[in-house]
Amino acid sequence: MKKIIIPLLILMSNLVIGQNSTEYYGLNLNLKKYDNQWYHFGFTLGMMKTDLKVDFNEEFMGIGDITGIESKSTPGFNVGIVCDLKVAKNLNFRFIPSLTFTQRDLLFNMENGSQITEVIENSNLDLPFLFKYRATRFQNIRPYFIIGGRFTYDMASKEEVDDVSIFKLKNIDYGIECGFGIDMYLAYFKLSPEIKYFYGINNMLVKDSNTHHLSSHLDALYSRTILFSLTFE
Fold first, then answer.
1. What's the pTM value of the predicted model, to 2 decimals?
2. Domain count, the chain
């Protein structure tokens, strides 16, 4: 992820420097009236890394052949629509309905040195409600901080499937989302590289009579996500 983010930030910085050069010679700023709009729309594209925080069931750990459990994440993809409403001079409210496609793996380490891998694929509808606080604009850039809540519905969840051979997670998740970014005012649109972190507070583990036997070694699973995105407005 770092190998992707750092080159992109350098590229974005070079673009802004090129756009800012007009200001140094006394020319107009880009999109001078943009911040006077009460609402506007855009879209966002992003890459993410989603993981699971694992809480072990101490009653069952050490029983049987399982010696440890760990979570492994793979890169995911995100695309969404930006709906932005100006609340005050430096404060905006944002609703960004998005589709995300991710995969998370749970690795069960066995006593004989082998591993059992449970693959959990997700196709999520994310509904974040966020407040965006922006610093004062400096030429063609404007840093900001963003915080709020997010509700997620997993359209590929197997929570209701009556099959004990399937490792299941709940289809509903929610939590806190926060991050930061930089608004870059280009000639014809605003580009914003952004990094956000999602802290899930809903226990995603399904434990009932139709649950996979490996879930007895777990007490709770919580979502943790880092998202890097580019927003075009």
1. 0.81
2. 1
31 and 233 in contact (C-beta within 8 Å)?
Answer: no
Strand partners, 194: 181, 229
The model's pLDDT over 76-133, given as tens digits with 9 standing for 90+, comes to 999 999 999 999 999 999 999 999 999 988 888 877 777 788 888 889 999 999 999 9
What's the rounded Cα separation, in Å, for the pair 68 and 114? Answer: 11
| Domain limits for position 129 | 2-232
How far is it, in rounded angstroms, from Cα 183 to Cα 133? 12
The token duo for 222 is: 């919580």
Q: How far is the C-alpha of 24 from the C-alpha of 14, rounded, in Å?
A: 15
CA distance 56 to 68: 9
Cα 15 to Cα 189: distance, rounded to the nearest angstrom: 12
Any idea what the CATH number is for the domain that residue 155 is in? Answer: 2.40.160.20
Contacts (Cβ under 8 Å, ≥6 apart) of 204: 52, 169, 170, 173, 220, 221, 222, 223
Taking a C-beta distance cutoff of 8 angstroms, is the pair 146, 132 a contact?
yes
